Amino acid sequence: MTDVLVVKTPDEAGEWVASRFTATIATRPDAVFGLATGSTPLPIYRALARQAAEQKLDLSRVRGFALDEYVGLPEGHEQSYRTVITNEVVKTVGLNPELVHVPNGAIDGIRTAGERYEEAIVAAGGIDWQILGVGSNGHIGFNEPGSSLASLTRVVKLAEQTRQDNARFFDSIDDVPTHSITQGVGTILRARNLVLLAFGEHKAAAVASAIEGPVTASVPASAIQLHPHVTVLADEAAASQL
Ligand code: GLP
């Protein structure tokens, strides 16, 4: 059963999610969070920083695993998700960078990078809370339409729609990588709790298919229906086709 919360603003969603996270950290200071990039989760990170400061929570043992990373960007590239996670999550929230993992998108070693990432998640005891955004084509992480619902962390080819959506972050679409390494749909489903956030009209169709459509690899986000503890937080525009 998927809980759906319709929020007035992204900040309201961020506060709600952050309050769940701080409650978890208060009882388990080394809790494990699945981190997402994109504009959607930013309110969570801001709210988490504020709530943790107010509650004087110790965040030094909190652990994180990013969902995905581009393949082949040079180290330190400003659009690599390692850089984005460092700037938007580690620094904003005040986490220990050594405890925050991002899949390794370097070409060297890419064949085994997925397996190593899976092992690291298992060794950490699994993910307590996984944050998800949703692509306009229904992708989660970089699991594009057609991804197996049992898939684990692996290299995938990006859909043309995704490259176009993300071209705004690069000088031109030719600079957008063609491949990424992403936690699989199966990896995501192993997390103990999922929160999927979506804001804006352009997400309405993806949200409706994810929650009310058939569970299908054509809409990877629909896999959340298979999970026992999932909350979708959407603003009125993103919830308008429900
Ligand atoms: C990227 C990420 C996804 C994210 C999506 C939506 O493709 N790999 O994890 O959900 O963008 O981004 P935004 O939140 O900016 O709409």
Chart the SSEs and their pairings:
Elements: E1 2-7, H1 10-27, E2 32-35, H2 42-54, E3 63-66, E4 68-70, H3 81-94, E5 100-101, H4 110-123, E6 129-132, E7 154-157, H5 160-166, E8 179-182, H6 185-190, E9 193-198, H7 204-212, E10 230-235
Parallel strand pairs: 1-10, 2-3, 2-6, 3-5, 6-9, 9-10
Antiparallel strand pairs: 4-8, 7-8
Helix pairs in contact: 1-2, 2-3
Bound molecules: 2-amino-2-deoxy-6-O-phosphono-alpha-D-glucopyranose.
Domain Glucosamine/galactosamine-6-phosphate isomerase: 12-226
Family: Belongs to the glucosamine/galactosamine-6-phosphate isomerase family. NagB subfamily.
GO molecular function, one term: glucosamine-6-phosphate deaminase activity
Q: What is the molecular shape?
A: globular
Number of helices: 7
Low-confidence stretches: none
Proportion of strand residues: 15-25%
Overall mean pLDDT:
97
Sheet having the most strands: 7 strands, parallel
Which class do the helix and strand fractions yield?
Answer: alpha/beta
What top-tier CATH class of the domain at 6-129 and 148-190 fits best?
A: Alpha Beta
Bound molecules: 2-amino-2-deoxy-6-O-phosphono-alpha-D-glucopyranose
- Rg: 17 Å
Q: How many strands appear in the DSSP assignment?
A: 10
CATH topology of the domain at 6-129 and 148-190: Rossmann fold
Order of helices and strands: EHEHEEHEHEEHEHEHE
Calculate the terminal CA-CA distance, rounded to whole Å: 15 Å
CATH architectural arrangement of the domain at 6-129 and 148-190: 3-Layer(aba) Sandwich
Instruction: Kindly report the spatial arrangement of strands forming the biggest sheet.
Output: 1-10-9-6-2-3-5
